[in-house]
## 1
Amino acid sequence: MTHCAIDMQDVQYRYPDGSVALNGINLQVGRGERAVVLGANGAGKSTLLAVMCGVLQPSQGTIKILETKLTRQTTRRLRASIGLVFQEPDNQLFMPTLWEDVAFGPLNMGLPAEKVKSRVEEALDVVGLAELRDRPPHHLSVGEKKRAAIATVLAMHPKILVLDEPTAHLDPQSRTDLIRFLGQLHAQGDLTLIIATHDVENAPLLADRAYVLSHGRLVGRGTVVEIFSNPEMLQAAHLAAPTVAQLLHLVPAIARRIADEPTPLTLADAAQVLRRLCAHTEEADRAENHLLREVH
Amino acid sequence: MLKELLRAVGESLQIEQFASRPGVLQRVDPRIKLVSFAGVIIVAVLLQSVLQFLILLLLLTALAAASRLPLRAFFRRQAAFVGFSTVIVLPLPFITPGYALLTIPLGPWLFWVTFEGVYRAVFFAVRVWVCVAALSLLTLSTRFVELLHGMQRLHFPRLFIELTAITYRFIFVFTDEAYRMGLAREARTVRKERVVRPRTWRTLSSMIGTLFVRAYERGEKVYQAMLARGYAGDFRLVNRLHCGAKDWSFGVGLMLAVLLVYFAPFLAPVTSIGGWL
């Protein structure tokens, strides 16, 4: 594939104790794509992301970021173009104030002070935390911490944004906000998004392509629709299709009628299908209403 | 234990609040503050008379008042350290040779309380007191970030600044963690806890162990997060300090006052009992 944002060839990673965490990983994500890495707890998602970003060194295999091979020499330079947002924001926010934390990355890139300032302001604006700039991170709510963690990475202007379980521990509203925010971010530029999650409900909203990780191996790849149309593979990987998809398939009358179409995975898609299926019922209702009105 | 932890966290949260009050010290550049309070501490270590100490303490208290710091909090912070140093110097009056003020016969033994011993003990305690007062004044009146910036501009070692920043940041994370662990333990504790029961101590020790392991693991994660954002071994901050004439005059003024206390002849040191009689 040309224009690869991430290209991993036969990557293996062993924990310091020798046990294999990742094995035979072949993964390609094109520039500007939105990809999701699905996997159960302990499948190796976080390790995969850390290896992908050059934070952990693979014991075998090659990784290319934006067509540059990740080596000891290039790691530092490449880190500016690939931003990793950790699952636990408390691990990522380690400076005494939010402002300092967001400035940490740009300062490490050796940018001049003025540039650092403008980047920090910009990143805080983007995530909507500009007013909290002087707050110590421990005063932020979990949702704010998540956004703050994203800001720390955005300030480095990465070409690739890698997020580990971004929707975990968020209330429904914050989760919706975050998903919308990530969508907008992706729509604005040629940002490549790579998201690891076991949140199958929201995966279709976050990405177009999906990879399934199970026990350190990639066991499935394809579009999100393809992946979620394969219940056997999902079950083997301790995953499941989104509830809406399962629900529609639980009603035989509906399942029969949509058997040849792509499985609706989101609430909006499912609503559309149901609306279409109900269309004739609605028509009948309208006709009946009309009749009733004429009678009166 | 939980309550103390909570209180410690609560108190540290208040620090920042005092540091943004409109007071005298809050307006001074952190570099000047760092250097002048270091000066106060050096002089305090060299002082030879209790009267000088008391004047220094008065001076620091006046500064605290002028900076609108709550004096109760100011003194409460010092009390813990002074208490601790008092415990340390408790044996001094008995083991220092010198003029016996008091003889205590205890069975076959005889104990002396010597003037020199009392003198050394009191001195140590008061010296610690003044130093701690100066440091509390500095930390209560300065926002933590500014302190870091000040240290960086004064070319403190990078590793030192880095460790200070990260320690400060994670104190809260770990007190929270300890608090949650304590809650989890209490939720499963049915019997009434007694301090003497060995089981209580065993759970406590395993809790401390777990906390250490978690701290270690978190350290790894934080380091990874730092690496991911291009950390290459040097810690950088954007300069946002400005040091003007007002700052300099505060520093010079404080130094002059402290030196005056040190050199003033009427505050001549008392080093032997003769001086006092």
Note: Chain A has 13 helices and ten strands.
## 2
Amino acid sequence: MDHRLPFHEVIPARKWQRKTDLGSFEYTYKAEITSIYGLTDYENLYRIRIIDHDDRKHFSFHPGQFIMLEAPGIGEAPFSISSSPSNHEDIELCIRTAGNLTAFLSRARRGMHVGLRGPFGTDFPMERMHNGDILLIAGGLGLAPLRAPIAHVQEHRSRFDHVDLVYGAKDPSRLLFKFQYDLWKKDNINLHIIMEKADPSWTGPVGLITKVLEEIINSRDDSFIDNTYAIVCGPPVMFKFVCGALSERGVPMQKMFVSLERRMHCGMGKCCRCNVGSTYTCLKGPVFDYWTVMNLKEAI
Amino acid sequence: MIRTYILNKNHLSFWLRQLKSAHELIAPWRDASGDIVLTELSRMHETALDGPALMPSPKEFLLPQMEQLFCYSEEGIEEAVNKQGRVLFGIRPCDISAIKILDTFYLGKNKDVYYETRRNKTILVSIACNQPDPTCFCLGLGTGPFLKSGFDLQFTDLGDRFFVEAESENGMSLVKDFPHIFIEPKTVDGEDLYEARLASQSRFEKRVNLEQVRKSILAGKVNDAFWESVAVRCFECGGCVYNCPVCTCFNVIDRPASVDTGKRIRLWDTCMFKGFTRTAGGVVPAEAKIHRTKRWFHHKLLHWPEQFGVFGCVGCGRCAVSCPGSIDMATVALKIKGSDQAEEKNA
């Protein structure tokens, strides 16, 4: 199925929100912020609901895809979706205050209207990973796009064997989604959290994410190589070390999936910002297997 | 099928005046400071067809420097598009080639509707170059100095008259109402045309073979030290990108007028600026100047051919005119070729 199906192909013409004769360009959904939950000092979790009931029913996405969120008068920016694809009511976005739009959103109130375009991009091939082990590796804000595949794993837990989640953060005050850790553990997801810098309240391991990763790799037998799929998300430096360590152990590069972060303004391969070589991250990405990324010059 | 006509130069103003009654007529015009710019023509005899490559390029009329995508208010959102037909008269064959490249980019998969609407209402009338500029190198790319196809109407200056070629329906529609001035060409006109073309081809000062350059880059013969030597000369002014008829990068921003009204505009952007690729995480994928200059050249020389089968360069030489550091496409291409040949001699 083509996930990039434009709005006008799924919604009858009378439902268009805009007065326009440029029909084919129109697929912005009108949405509403239904709740805002502060995760840390910098990141908030926004729950967003498409107002029109029919549109909401038609909107579906896959783990790893992103949307363009706009606030009229402020701007538009891409955000990866960090909620379960099976939740058709709300979309959850974990957003760090970094620029114009995000600063505006951090001051937003419940009930504010926003525009939503998408979903765009490729997804993590979750079906392909069924009956295998999954290694989810997140660095910092990388946990935001990983929450969608984690939710998929939770919902189809019996289809996966070992599931490990390795999460590295700068310090304990920057931990995201704290309320989920117990739920994840309950679903038999092994959670390994490591801090770059510890403070007195932290009792877990301290160091770089590769430290925990190596422990996991070394603790497994050779079946690990054949069965494991890795999903990696984080700052570009992390990809090199994490994927390097995994491929050294023998995990094939095609079984590691990374999500690249690039600046985007259109989401349709026109503004020429996100391209790595001749590959547009918004069209062919953001999810790539590591083999493809290695063959893209200067991708990471 | 290409139909050919002869138009006496005395009839040009009359014909342009007729065009203007039904279309928005854009033509080169010499402004008060002596520069030749593309603008809406009001006095027909003032059109200046003998100047160098037009700055800025005609892409401005298909992809404006700043265009309003839509405006929003409490009542909803309304979009702005150009509704009147438009004739771009007096642009160069390289500009037409550039517009053809823009077409493959904007009208391929994921059509850009703003571009499409504007493009469908634009008729392209080019003037073949009898006097190529010293900066031009379209000859090696096949994008000029005259075209075999792709135009709506192509004029060739034959001294006292124009040789007119009409290829498309749109082009035909401009001439078919004036059979008394667009007359049948004679044999002598064809001979003059042939001579004019031959003379024009011989006047090129720069001979650049971009395919050769592409091959040496792909073969890994161009190292980072070379790109560093290019990058140190870059002023990061963005002139090459803004003047390039093929460059398409844009930025989208919102301009609020009040609390709940405003407009969203799209404006040109340039990959030569550092903030162009800055991400929320604070990482800038192309941070060093060398990455940005290399990215621009690679995009034109490697990635366009890979995606669309044509170079992202038409050899118009505008970057050579605008670049204060002399690192335009032709200079860099010749340098790559030169160092390549020097290497072969040494080997």
Note: Chain A has two domains: 13-120, 127-259.
